[in-house]
Design a protein that fits this description.
Layout (H helix, E strand, L loop, with lengths): L13 E5 L2 E5 L17 E4 L8 E5 L5 E8 L2 E9 L10 E6 L8 E6 L4 E8 L2 E9 L10 E6 L8 E6 L4 E8 L2 E9 L11 E6 L8 E6 L4 E7 L4 E8 L11 E6 L8 E6 L4 E7 L4 E8 L8 E6 L8 E6 L4 E7 L4 E8 L11 E6 L8 E6 L14 E4 L1
């Protein structure tokens, strides 16, 4: 299928952080598609074609068209990759996950529809996305607020699976693709921990144990304990990682909890920020415990005007932190050396643009394929039909 023609324009902005500063470059414009933030255009980011960098994919409810956008030599080009009418995927009766569910080395789209319990998988082959009905679950409505699902390679199979938890009985079910079907296995029960979906628990997914499989970690503010559900491929085995009761309630509004491989050892760690004193604390995972140490002090980032990102902005194999301040458009990057975060100003968005307002989408990922994390933002066209072009892609380089 042909790339986007002049009828659907595609110049859009690219941002690199060269020597500690953001550089912005326009790489595309999608005014010809209309307002992609109108509630009729779900947008996702992933490596859908297996090109080794992030791409943009959107679906339009009105005509069932799926469009794939790829940055090539500084230009964001669009291709029509499918026509499949699934109704409004934003209607509250659908939920979508991205992952490599078939083990083909590229991002796929998996969605569930509560109306009939069906699961649909969309996969790219050559220049076309094809859709298959891969399951019909009899677990009731998985979008009823009593269930929560995660995607990851919990089985260590080299492909992603879906793991969901039901607070009604504490059961955890793993859905894995086999022979073109999503099959389900009971892998754990945590009824003894109570309701993990209440406002006193926080659950995060990642490779915390270092065994090559995704796992679940949860925190309970009642006693400050952290628990790891480590996967052995067929079951989640739970063990205590330690307690942070001395730090108070980490789920209060003046704390932010992040995860990433901040030490660069291949295991996901926990990092939290406390607005009260500006301290950043690292819980480095050994696979069996979280060991806590102070990584940095940087105050003034705890309000709703700030957005935190985790990514490898310098390409050294360790997760870093980026902070965007919507009040002044500035970015700061905290580079991890494995034990400390070194923060410095990394530039700003010009023109008084607020990337956190309702007219923008704002994401992180490696969009130019250089092994470093970037930023991508879409700005909706102005009501008169003109397009406000926002710098799209921010890459950190030395």
């Amino acid at each position: 299928m042909a790339a986007l023609s002049s009828a659907r324009p595609s110049p859009t902005p690219l941002t690199t952080i060269a020597r500690g500063s953001l550089r912005w470059q326009l790489v595309g414009n999608t005014a010809g598609f209309g307002n992609l933030l109108d509630g009729q255009h779900p947008i996702w980011f992933g490596d859908f074609s297996g090109v080794g960098r992030q791409q943009a994919l959107f679906y339009y409810v009105g005509d069932g068209h799926w469009w794939l956008g790829t940055i090539t030599r500084g230009t964001l080009g669009w291709s029509l990759v499918a026509t499949a009418r699934f109704g409004n995927l934003f209607d509250g009766a659908h939920s979508t996950w991205l992952g490599d569910f078939s083990g083909r080395g590229r991002t796929e789209v998996l969605f569930y529809y509560a109306g009939d319990g069906r699961w649909w998988l969309g996969s790219m082959a050559a220049s076309t996305m094809t859709w298959s009905n891969v399951a019909n679950t009899g677990f009731g409505n998985l979008l009823d607020g009593a269930h929560r699902a995660w995607q990851g390679d919990f089985a260590g199979a080299g492909a992603d699976q879906i793991l969901f938890y039901y607070r009604g009985d504490g059961n955890w079910w793993l859905g894995q693709m086999a022979g073109g079907r999503l099959t389900w296995t009971l892998v754990a029960n945590t009824a003894g921990f109570g309701n993990l979906l209440d406002d006193r628990h926080a659950l995060v997914r990642g490779e915390f144990s270092g065994n090559g499989r995704s796992s679940l970690v949860f925190y309970y503010n009642g006693d400050g304990n952290w628990w790891l559900g480590a996967s052995d491929g067929s079951a989640l085995n739970w063990k205590n990682l330690g307690s942070t009761s001395g730090f108070g309630n980490l789920l209060s509004a003046d704390h932010r909890i992040l995860t990433g491989d901040f030490t660069g050892d291949g295991k996901r760690d926990v990092l939290f920020y406390y607005a009260g004193d500006g301290n950043w604390w690292l819980g480095a995972s050994s696979g069996s415990a979280l060991t806590w140490s102070q990584m940095a002090t940087r105050a003034g980032a705890g309000d709703l005007a700030h957005r935190f990102f985790v990514g490898d902005y310098d390409g050294d194999g360790k997760s870093d932190v980026a902070i965007y301040d919507s009040d002044d458009g500035s970015f700061a990057v905290g580079r991890s050396d494995g034990a400390h975060l070194g923060f410095h100003a990394a530039g700003s968005v010009a023109g008084g643009v607020n990337l956190l307002d309702s007219a923008h989408l704002f994401y992180g990922g490696d969009y130019d394929g250089d092994g470093k994390s970037d930023f991508v933002s879409y700005g909706a066209p102005a009501p008169i039909g003109s397009t406000k072009l926002i710098p799209i892609n921010g890459t950190y380089t030395d």
